[in-house]
Amino acid sequence: MSEFKHHQTAHCENGVTVSLLKHHGVDFITEPLAFGLGSGLFYIHIPFMEINNGPAISFRTMPGSIFKRTCKALDVHVERKKFKNPKEATDFLDSKLAQGMHVGCQVGVFHLPYFPKEYRFHFNAHNLIVFGKEGDRYLVSDPVMEVTTSLSVEELEKVRFAKGALAPKGHIYYPVQVGEISQEQIRSAIVRGIKRNSKDMLNIPVPMIGVKGINYTSKKIRGWREKHGPRKAGLHLGQIVRMQEEIGTGGGGFRFLYAAFLEEASAIMQNDELMRVSEKMTKAGDLWRDSALQMSGIYKGRITEQKDFDNCADLLLEISAVEKDAFLDLYNIKL
Amino acid sequence: MKKSEVPQDKSALENFTREVCYVKNESGQYDTELSIGWEAKKVALDEAWKEIERRTSEAREKIKNGEASPILYFMEEKLMDFTVLAGYTGIWKFRIKRHLKPNSFQKLNDTVLKKYANAFDISVHELKNFKA
């Protein structure tokens, strides 16, 4: 078994990307860089869909795409596989481990024994790395945990075959071929990542997506108290704060992560303008945190008037304006 | 957020892990810091669990009053919705909805009950004899 170094990150998919690439000798990769090359920042409010009986909102791009895009940008070949039969999935994993490989697995959070009970929900797009087997226990590196853990054969099978929305179906993935990565390649990957991300946030012609999507949520928040009553409306706000990412980041966290990426990109590209946009993104992150504090006052039931909901809605409008400004800059920067 | 401002509020993560936060250090550059939790997030989670408790006790009431079958209670208790339960049991959603009625629940054979019991991690006996 080859040696494995655990990397703790703010977000699971970035973490798996960083650990697997570093293991294959991509030394320069960092979490912010992986997030930026993968154009990870996003906003979408999906109407007519509920998660845990609250609004369905995501602050990052589709699960799986950060890993996919980052690897593609660095010309890293990836293999992936899904299974119908759990037994086959386990055999395949064992065979990869026997070859000394480390693999990423998509899993459901609900049955993960090393998470606190309060954090276990039916969320199926969590990612972790299996890097070995000792006796009948798999050695697991979960990027949001401080240290590595382990899972029994049954436990791992259960989380790999969790059911419900985004069921992982034993999804397993790993880099197979990593070539030399030139400075030039890194620079063009950064440019592509930034341009794609600003298009995603600005140009998708659907009102629930990107910076417009934040306004959409703002409008909804104004109406929630009237529509659902103070209690349920408060719970909806709580849901936004939980951000469908029980552990790690959240709305603000992803903005800080993107700001950190822009700071790194600014150094690599030797472009001061990127640093200025990084400051704007930090501002957006701070505003998201302010909004979470404002919302927590409401779901705690201390403040429940319509004007308090309006305050939240106004904050979201401000955030939308700040992010629009930042992404317009990014869209127009000559890189 | 500045490094010195990272919240360190007690949360359910205690004894499990700390979270990585991206923050600005003293010289204005991005750095990471570990946090044991944030009050605003903790309260959101607490409220979500209170809501689950409320929903399970509502389910108990319905079962007592003969308006729902035990499936409703365990579904709420395991935080499942119809998609999740359909996934674990392999039973179509519209059939599950029917099985939530006490009458059709009474008529279920053990094969079907076993599917539900497995999904809920309980025995068929527990499911059949659930006292609300």
UniProtKB/TrEMBL annotation, chain A:
Residue ranges constituting the DUF4872 domain according to the UniProt record: 154-329
Protein name: Peptidase
InterPro entries: BtrH_N, DUF4872
One Pfam short name: DUF4872
Domain Butirosin biosynthesis protein H N-terminal: 11-143
UniProtKB/TrEMBL annotation, chain B:
The protein's name in its UniProt record: HTH cro/C1-type domain-containing protein
Organism: Fluviicola taffensis (strain DSM 16823 / NCIMB 13979 / RW262)
